[in-house]
Amino acid sequence: MGRKSDARNKILEAAKALIEQRGYSALGVAEICTAAGVPKGSFYHFFASKQALALTVIDEHWAAQRQQWSELLGSGREPLRRLADLFEATEEFQRAALRQEGMVVGCMFGNLASELSSQVPEIRDRLQEIFETQIDMIEKVVAEAKAAGQTGPAVDTREAARSIVAQIEGRVLLAKLLNDPAQLGTLWQNSLGLLQVPADARPAA
Amino acid sequence: MGRKSDARNKILEAAKALIEQRGYSALGVAEICTAAGVPKGSFYHFFASKQALALTVIDEHWAAQRQQWSELLGSGREPLRRLADLFEATEEFQRAALRQEGMVVGCMFGNLASELSSQVPEIRDRLQEIFETQIDMIEKVVAEAKAAGQTGPAVDTREAARSIVAQIEGRVLLAKLLNDPAQLGTLWQNSLGLLQVPADARPAA
């Protein structure tokens, strides 16, 4: 990689870490450049604004997460087991942050949605697309499980998928508040409840 | 009320509205005073710092919300119906914000937990207490429902209450992101799923 793309990557990495730690509004371009170790002049060579940088951070984070979600939710395993795989990966992501950065960072998309939904339409719109895609991906697995008779027969697959995403966000928020990734340990059992899987028909964890 | 407490109340009201709109980090004392229409000198007569003000805003908001939760969850109605009453009030709160302020403001405690858990220990600790109290209050109702045979027999009342609070937070986040209070309309059905209430034993909505 040449020096120019090095500088771009340094800015992106520094911005991602700072956004995870402190959100968007409290950050300034000068601080990001200092953390990245690049002169402020090169910032505007790569990004038109702080907002443009944030959108790139969001897009890169989502590209990586989407890839992981696709692999886990598209594996050949039983549909409900695939949901468990996703929840385990979600918990492991927070455990890794706790080990490496000393804290549960929460969900970048949830954090930014909470902070910016009423303030920055461009970021809100991008986050809406991301959450809708997450719901799509989970709904596909829920529909497979329902077709196989593994959920309650009356489950609305779209609403159930939306509720599973909401449950992830709520549990990740508690994990962040308590700095405790174990708050995510009940996601699978909760999802089986949301999917109206009878208690005596639940697969082993 | 004398002039002094008027000024204090004006500061509190302005701070509450600004925190709901823009969070904590992006606010400055000068901006709060301008919005409140009080001179900056009087701010420090009432509050030692922005953080002290934020803690007072949190405490006053929680005192009001706790009173409402106590009334709804302590009414003489059927336990599961009391949960429905709470969810309806939660949705109505967001509908009122949308009517009055033009936007779903979300949950002040969830927003601040997302923003500040890794940054401001004093605020994080207060929010932890509030969420634990919310979980306590819901667990009490869940335990009543379980004792009356209205939940699945294997439900862990503490974990179920925690998951209901997480579901509220996740759904409120989606409501804020989509500026759509109707995202809260499924909270009761979802909670019945989390409580493992069999589909054919669910009370009418």
From TrEMBL, chains A, B:
<dbReference type="InterPro" id="IPR036271">
    <property type="entry name" value="Tet_transcr_reg_TetR-rel_C_sf"/>
</dbReference>
<keyword id="KW-0804">Transcription</keyword>
<dbReference type="Pfam" id="PF16925">
    <property type="entry name" value="TetR_C_13"/>
</dbReference>
<dbReference type="InterPro" id="IPR011075">
    <property type="entry name" value="TetR_C"/>
</dbReference>
<protein>
    <submittedName>
        <fullName>TetR family transcriptional regulator</fullName>
    </submittedName>
</protein>
<dbReference type="InterPro" id="IPR009057">
    <property type="entry name" value="Homeodomain-like_sf"/>
</dbReference>
<dbReference type="Pfam" id="PF00440">
    <property type="entry name" value="TetR_N"/>
</dbReference>
<dbReference type="InterPro" id="IPR001647">
    <property type="entry name" value="HTH_TetR"/>
</dbReference>
<feature type="DNA-binding region" description="H-T-H motif">
    <location>
        <begin position="28"/>
        <end position="47"/>
    </location>
</feature>
<dbReference type="GO" id="GO:0003677">
    <property type="term" value="F:DNA binding"/>
</dbReference>
<feature type="domain" description="HTH tetR-type">
    <location>
        <begin position="5"/>
        <end position="65"/>
    </location>
</feature>
<keyword id="KW-0238">DNA-binding</keyword>
<keyword id="KW-0805">Transcription regulation</keyword>
